[in-house]
Specification:
Blueprint: H1 15-25, E1 34-36, E2 44-49, E3 53-58, H2 61-77, E4 88-92, E5 102-106, H3 121-137, H4 156-167, H5 176-188, E6 197-199, E7 208-211, E8 214-218, E9 225-227, H6 235-238, H7 242-252, H8 256-277, H9 282-298
Antiparallel strand pairs: 1-2, 2-3, 3-5, 4-5, 6-9, 7-8
Helix pairs in contact: 3-7, 4-5, 4-8, 5-8, 8-9
Length: about 300
């Protein structure tokens, strides 16, 4: 859960604002109960609307672009995927002093899986691999470049800066020399020379829903687009234990270079996230620590 202001430029959102927005733009739902959903998310606020819907409102300007992305692409992607994804029921517009577009979605059941506490890790690994493989097989034209879909080298400066920042936070106990070695191995790995593939590009535990140990939904497609298939290997290190990680890799037939890039990309994200979120978003910081331990422990 969030414990403070995460980003500069965040717009204040509360139940009263959500109630006014719904009443003004979707009066048919104005009488439904509204309840804030605690979330480790960093870009959107979520409010349950009645029993069957959820309102998702960007906290920052960048999230507004994600709203448009999902409205455009989710209806096109959904028929091609084995797992339910968010269904937009209403497109809200700026009003009541709130400056960005927002959306109402159908409620999806399930809970976020937690690294280290999976009841069926192998089955979950198989489900995740099925989803990733389905995304890769999509051939819809006109896709944008995924938020994390470009060359690994584009992350170099930010990753090295994060490592140096973590050197100045010794209480986190990060082996920064080991992290640098993994990152440099990532940079040496051959880049992706095949065609770009469709990616979710943000397969964090907070963007997955599970029930009975099985994947029930994948949410938050704001980073979607085309790019390096290594970008959708994040669950191997941010969620799955070692034996399930192997199942995930085998199911996707991942070559060594792509695996190394996927590991490095996941580590990079965690290294950047930890100093940024360590005092403001406990869920993100906790998972970043898990990733760093997992990746460096493989060596």
């Amino acid at each position: 859960m969030n414990t403070g202001k995460i980003h500069p430029g965040m717009h204040p959102i509360d139940i009263d604002l959500v109630r006014r927005l719904i009443a003004g733009q979707f009066p048919q739902w104005a009488g439904l109960a509204i309840k804030r959903i605690p979330s480790g998310g960093t870009v959107n606020a979520m409010y349950r609307l009645g029993d069957d819907m959820v309102v998702r409102l960007p906290l920052v300007q960048g999230g507004a672009n994600d709203v448009s992305m999902e409205r455009t692409w989710l209806p096109r992607l959904a028929p091609h995927l084995p797992t339910p994804v968010p269904e937009v029921l209403g497109g809200g517009e700026p009003a009541e002093g709130y400056p960005w577009p927002w959306s109402v979605y159908r409620w999806l059941t399930g809970e976020n899986p937690e690294a280290g506490a999976l009841s069926e890790p192998v089955l979950l690994a198989e489900d995740l691999a099925e989803f990733v493989a389905a995304m890769r097989s999509i051939t819809l034209p006109g896709a944008p470049q995924a938020h994390r879909g470009g060359p690994v080298a584009s992350l170099d400066a930010e990753t090295r800066a994060a490592i140096e920042e973590l050197r100045r936070i010794p209480q986190e106990g990060v082996d920064c020399d080991a992290a640098t070695a993994v990152w440099e191995e990532t940079l040496r790995a051959p880049g992706w020379d095949g065609r770009p593939v469709w990616l979710h590009a943000d397969l964090m535990p907070g963007n997955l829903l599970a029930d009975g140990g099985r994947l029930t939904s994948v949410i938050d497609f704001g980073c979607l687009g085309m790019g390096d298939p290594a970008c959708d290997l994040f669950p191997a290190w941010n969620l799955l234990p070692a034996h399930a990680r192997d199942v995930f890799r085998e199911a996707l037939s991942v070559d060594n270079a792509t695996w190394i890039r996927g590991r490095g990309r996941t580590l990079s994200q965690a290294l950047i996230a930890l100093p940024y979120y360590r005092t403001t978003n406990l869920a993100m910081a906790h998972n970043a620590r898990y990733v760093i331990r997992t990746v460096l422990g493989e060596g």
